[in-house]
Write a structure and sequence with these properties.
Structural class: alpha/beta
Distance between the termini: 84 Å
Shape: elongated
Number of helices: 16
Order of helices and strands: HHHEHEHEHHHHHHHHEEHEHEEHEEEE
Helix content: 40-55%
Number of strands: 12
Strand order of the largest sheet: 6-7-9-11-12
Length: 451
């Protein structure tokens, strides 16, 4: 009598054999067969399609030269090189790295390169004199193995490289010289060295008529290109909730601010600011220059768009408000609620006087950050004669009161009352700045402050 389980095992085995890619070695000379296999694989590798022709790989020679120095190709030892940066991308095998052994990874890599499915490797793999190249956006992965991995950080395009790259698209569509210069400058200023943005925008902007690409570039300032955002968002999606909140705070409120100041404010919000900012730096989402926090314009735009997506039509349902139109809408319609945690209002953009009323803030009981300023950025230097209180377009109604006890940062330019509300609770306050205000005393009663 047949054993059903044994029959099933044989069927599965035969099916696996039928699916294997390979060459029939029966009745063939072994050395000739090996030569045939090598020629076939080499032909496939050399003909593998790329997205760029060699002449359009702008800046590649200098970067390859730097990589070759790290690879030490003349050495017979095994070397691992990590390439990191926001521009990194390669074959999609990274997600399987932890779940696969070396043989499985090599099988998947070769299957993608040779465009062969179900490719199998028999026998042990020798990695002597091998060069293993890992690409990632997370620098920590490389630093944590710095004893075994040399890492190379991909540099962004310089201005010269940007123009050289965009010439490729200009020649296809025969733009006039002055139009090419204008469009190239606009794309360069928007992309800021990010290769991905150059490729996405160059592929279709240069085929548009002048009025069309001018209109599209205006649109880009408020509505980001989704192809670019999808790639940039990969790094954001890899953050935990605490790190995501820190990223959104920096994108919406603290870009260009002193790192130590931001950490003090965020620590007051009970988040792990040091660890979070370190992670953002390692993932190429934030950089530090002169101890100030910076991020690429497109990354900041991505952060603001993530927040905007919380509610496209009702600003009062978002956690961060920074557009003066949205803030004006929320405060005049009293549509704010407990969802709002931060407001950053640049008075320079206001055309009409804006009233701050108790009713407008009544349901914002989780407000942490309130910044009302009249500078290109938040400043603690009040020597500017053009920002006096006489020109302030912000008015606080009599009897105004804050309904949140979670305020950590309160920056009010031109505060129009003579004191803060009697019931104002500064218990969690980390910073209080009130330039060009009418204030005579902070409050009339004794208040306990967080030490």
């Amino acid at each position: 009598m047949e054993n059903p389980e044994r029959v099933k095992l044989w069927k599965d085995a035969l099916q696996q054999v039928a699916n294997l890619s390979g060459w029939d070695s029966r009745n063939k000379n072994e050395s000739l067969l090996i030569e045939e296999i090598v020629r076939n694989l080499l032909s496939k590798l050399l003909s593998t399609s790329t997205s760029d022709t060699e002449e359009n790989l702008v800046g590649i020679n200098s970067r390859i030269g730097e990589l070759k120095m790290l690879l030490c190709l003349q050495s017979n030892d095994v070397r691992i090189i990590g390439i990191c940066g926001m521009a990194c991308s390669f074959l999609e095998i990274v997600d399987d790295f932890k779940e696969r052994d070396l043989t499985s990874l090599v099988e998947k890599l070769l299957s993608q390169l040779l465009e062969e499915e179900n490719l199998k490797i028999k026998g042990p793999i020798s990695i002597k004199a091998s060069r293993i190249i890992v690409t990632t956006r997370d620098k920590r992965l490389l630093i944590s193995h710095s004893d075994r991995v040399d890492y190379y950080e991909v540099a962004e395009f310089s201005d010269t490289e940007a123009f050289e790259f965009l010439k490729h698209y200009s020649m296809k569509h025969e733009l006039l010289g002055k139009d090419f210069l204008e469009l190239s400058r606009e794309v360069r200023d928007y992309a800021q060295g990010l290769l991905l943005a150059f490729k996405v925008l160059g592929s279709f902007l240069f085929s548009m008529k002048k009025d069309e690409w001018r209109n599209y570039l205006v649109k880009l300032k408020s509505t980001p290109n989704m192809k670019i955002q999808e790639v940039l968002r990969i790094s954001y999606d890899g953050l935990d909730d605490n790190e995501k909140n820190i990223f959104l705070d920096i994108a919406c409120f603290f870009r260009g601010e002193d790192k130590d100041y931001v950490m003090e404010i965020l620590d007051g919000c009970n988040v792990f600011a040091y660890c979070g900012i370190r992670t953002l730096i390692d993932k190429s989402l934030v950089t530090i220059f002169d101890n100030k926090l910076y991020m690429h314009d497109l990354i900041q735009q991505m952060g603001k768009e993530i927040d905007r997506q919380q509610s496209l039509t009702v600003p009062g349902k978002r956690s961060e408000l920074w557009l003066h139109e949205d803030i004006f809408d929320v405060l005049t319609k009293n549509s704010g609620n407990e969802k709002i945690e931060g407001i950053s209002l640049n008075l320079s953009h206001l055309e009409d006087v804006l009233d701050f009323t108790t009713q407008a803030f009544a349901r914002m009981n989780k407000l942490r950050l309130l910044k009302v300023y009249k500078f290109s950025s938040i400043s603690r230097d009040f020597e500017d004669p053009f920002n006096d209180k006489e020109n302030c377009k912000l008015h606080f109604s009599n009897g105004f009161r804050f309904c949140s006890t979670d305020l950590r940062c309160l920056y009010l330019h031109g505060y129009s009352l003579k004191s803060l509300p009697n019931d104002f609770n500064p218990r969690n306050l980390v910073e209080l700045v009130m330039p060009y205000s009418y204030i005579k005393q902070l409050w009339k009663r004794i208040k306990s402050l967080k030490s």
